[in-house]
Amino acid sequence: LETLGACRRAALDNFSRQKHRFESRQKRGGGVLHFSLVPEDEIDVPESAAPDEIFDREWGRAILRETLAELEKEMRAEGDGRPFEVFSAFDLAPEPPSYSDLAAQFRVSETDVKNILYRTRVRLREKVLSRVRETVADEEEAIREMRELFGKTGL
Is the pTM of this model over 0.70? Predict the structure, then answer.
């Protein structure tokens, strides 16, 4: 009877430990800041917006615009502009096509499309964060600035 009680306690301990591990794990992309690449002409600034809000929004747009141009130039200089074209066709389009449509359009597999999008987004995120870091004192402030500029989820 004593062994049965020990087994139950061990089972409950294991269950609790597994449950905690499951609930506290980071999902795919966990810990990484995200932002939307909505074309800037689709974002309306309310008339009641404060001047500093308008400034922040325009500054964010300028950083994004400059960084996208820099990223495109770099990727084309690397010899193949196709990854940026895939990225543009999906993330910068008003209505993005499906992965299968992109794969057919660029004659690559859907897995290649996903990998291209992932790698390009990571490069863009790092470039934008690098530009923001140039304007602030520390990493915490950079992350806070990213969230203010690009929404609650940041970059």
Answer: no
